[in-house]
Amino acid sequence: MPFNFNNSNVATRENRIGSITGYVGTLKDLAEKSQCGTLKGCSRCFSQSSTCLSTCGLSQLAAIRDVAVIHHGPAGCSVASSGSYYMSRVMAKKRGVTSSTVYVGTDMNENDTIFGSTKQLREIILEVNKRYSPKAIFVSSSCATGIIGEDIDSIVDDVKSEIDVPIVAVHCEGFKSRIWATGFDISDHAVVSSIVQPPREGVKSNKINFKNFFESARPEIIEMFKKFDLEPVFLYCNSTVEELSHLSESLATTCICGTLGNYIGNALEEKYNVPYVRSINQCGIVGFETWLREIGKVTGRSDKIEKYIEEQRAIYLPQIEEVKKELQGHTAVLGMGPGYTFEVSRVLDELGIKVVWALAWHYDKKYENGDVPPSMKYLLDNDIDFEASVADQQNYEVMNILKKYNPDMYLSRHPGSTVWAIKNGTPAIYVADEYMIFGYKHTLEFARSILDAINNRSFEENLAKRTKLPYTDWWYKQNVDAFLEEAN
Amino acid sequence: MAKLLDKQRYKCALGAMQSVQAIERALPVLHSGPGCAQKLSDTNGSSGYFSPNIFPCTSINEKDVVFGGVKKLHSTIDNALKVVDADLYVVLTGCIPEIVGDDTGEVVSEFADSDKPVIYAPTAGFKGNNYKGHEQVVDAIIDQYLKKSDEKEKGLVNIWADVPYQDLFWLGNIRELEKLVASLGLTPNTIFGYKRGIKNIDKITKAEFNLLVSPWVGLGSMKKMEKKFNIPFLHYKTLPIGATETSKFLREVGKFAGVDNEKIESVIKENEDYYYYLIERYADLFLENRVINKQFTVVADAQYALGITKFLVNDLGLIPAKQFVVDDTPSKYREDIKKEFENLNFNIKAEASFETDGYKIHEEIKNHDYHGYPLVLGGYYEKEVTESLKGNFINISWPVQDKVVLDSHYAGYSGGIRLIEDIYTVAVQRFN
Fold first, then answer.
1. Is residue A371 less than 8 Å (CB to CB) from chain B?
2. For testing the chain A interface, which of B14, B17, B59 should be mutated: the one with the most A CBs within 10 Å?
3. Pick the CATH number of A304-486 from 2.30.40.10, 2.60.40.10, 3.40.50.12380, 2.40.160.60
4. Is the dihedral of CA A229, A234, A235, A239 positive or negative?
5. Over pLDDT 90: what percentage of chain B?
6. ipTM of the shown complex
7. Candidates 3.40.50.12780, 3.90.850.10, 3.40.50.1980, 2.50.20.10; correct CATH number of A52-179?
8. Do B126 and A128 touch (CB under 8 A)?
9. For the whole model, what pTM was predicted?
10. Facing residue for B53 by CB, picked from A52, A109, A417
11. In this predicted model, what pLDDT tens digit does every residue of A438-481 receive, in sequence order?
12. Nearest chain B Cα to A87, which residue?
């Protein structure tokens, strides 16, 4: 799709790539309908809370070192600043670097909703710049400022002459998309439009942009890429503005999660011809090898990569085969973002675990380049099918499914979700670390962790025995799609 | 007017969903954007019978902004009643419905005849912070649920304290306050935490008086109940921590309730005896370490800034540097609270600054002469600055990243001992 970096607004995922948040059926049906363009998402007449796109967008930006995020809105919107403060300190410490990133709010009150507060916002921007001398400034709107029509673009334009670092407006009205991943796109849009510079002439690079969340596998990926004469540039946790300004010079862009990396990958490709590695992700054996081979192809390093694959296979495949024997025949339900659900389903299939139901919190019919997401294509090509739904983190739907299917395990990736499974007595595996199933080594660890989780169900049984679930019997008797209605 | 909120210490009024969550089997139903509940929650005891990710929510979208969200609110409440088993449903409004003018009260009134009570509190984020929101929730219970009672239960005292979840120690503190009040032969009644809930809410109007233990939070609700239900109240401004303040607290509450003086003094003696048995055994540690100095700063809401200052000065003999009250205390309460900071043993007066700008607070801490290593009790933000001054830091106020608290408390005699343990646990890890 054509990207427009002259406008600070990003169209929502719903409008841009046809993303949906409500569907119940099967994987095949979902994939086929997306391919032929007949998929229509549903909305809900009853929902439980989920996630705000500003949380995704601004936490990404606040992870960059030495920048300022100014969140113009009531104190509840900017409350994520406390978590970002903590994260920026501990993540920098882990790497042995420092970050003076600051995330502030504007504590908008009732008068401001009537009279506006652009004057104060202007002063706040200048004061933050004076206090912290950030390397870049991101000024975000909120639901309240969006509705009353605060023109943050004009304010940002207005102060540009007084501020000598990149400053950009970021539009984070929480109501504009049901899909919080739109926030990832918003942060990418801000970075590409305001920080990334055209490649410097004559600079030769062996760098590869690697979009991830918290770089927990950073040392081992650096080590591995060294063998291929590649150097990863991890985004955005602990990135510097200087590093980001040169993203356009890299050999390629790859990501740990298609939902997370799709926008910047395609944007850098379209704007600066940096190829975006399109493959299933690095989870599991097939995923890891497919991804590595795609990198080999894109960067011209196939020989080195084949050699590496051969060495690693010899070490890990026999061990993985061993664990598989014990996992064989177990059943699983999983609920994750679409960037993981359909990847982890594939890994579970590889490990011999039967997926009985997969919930994706949203579903992107296609990616920015118009293709069906690779993870879906893989499952279809390999004739893997199971019941599936698009569930917008609706816990009551998860519980309905868990009660009916009583699987051996529930896998999820989002805070607050695993506890409900264990209260149902279902062992839960929290796949929070995005590298938990990365490559051979972590796939083996993942398989063993699953075994550990299902081999000792004491905690689940202890808690389940003593707690009452908050859902009514009535609800458990309903079909999981009881509250879905045609989107209007 | 908008202001620079640098290192913010509070949430918005909708944060009062946590006050609702603290009432057993009370369910917040949010008329707000989809992510407000997640943003406003912390992992400090959130996964109870209800957790923020299962709070029903209208998850307002662009169409609702344009056409209004009352239809969705109606179906959300209607279905919440069917799907989720709660005793009390509390609808909380976020920013959007209040700006676009959804009549939430009207929608909620349509559920007046439902089997379970449904009430609502206006908690738009721009209406104030979560201290204010907490009061809105209590007011909603008073205005929409409680009925005046002619029947009074002898000795029954409602106890109200600071904001659940915002206060890390809320559960332990309120239980400790109950124990103290019960030790005087009175019957405490509280609505927050384990096995309190709707049955205790039902008892509120039978109480002889309300006891508010907070510098200012909830004072409006006390006045409301006095006017509406004729329940008098005792406003006790200082959260009692340690022997000196807790004994004062027992005397004042006892006197207000007409408890026999001998009884009060015997309760105090028993508690103080044990307290000083502990203090005597550890006094050498307090005096003979090389890292804790006399000067300290508290950066916290009014409750802890005042309570801890009184404890450290009147009990442990420390000297207050500047104290920072960071809860955006309404200006009408500030003078009274300042006076409390100036009412300390040996005519010591603590300077209290009402400040929400963390940058300024840190500048003042950096510029103060602590005559050695500073002792700073504050939010997680103070960790880095205190460490840069080689000081001792204890994370006692929001945001909290350095501590996990299940039911520990700082209130009361035993609470003072807990705080001492926390301070000296930091001290003994160092040697200078």
1. no
2. B59
3. 3.40.50.12380
4. negative
5. 97
6. 0.96
7. 3.40.50.1980
8. no
9. 0.96
10. A417
11. 999 999 999 999 999 999 999 999 999 999 999 999 999 999 99
12. B401
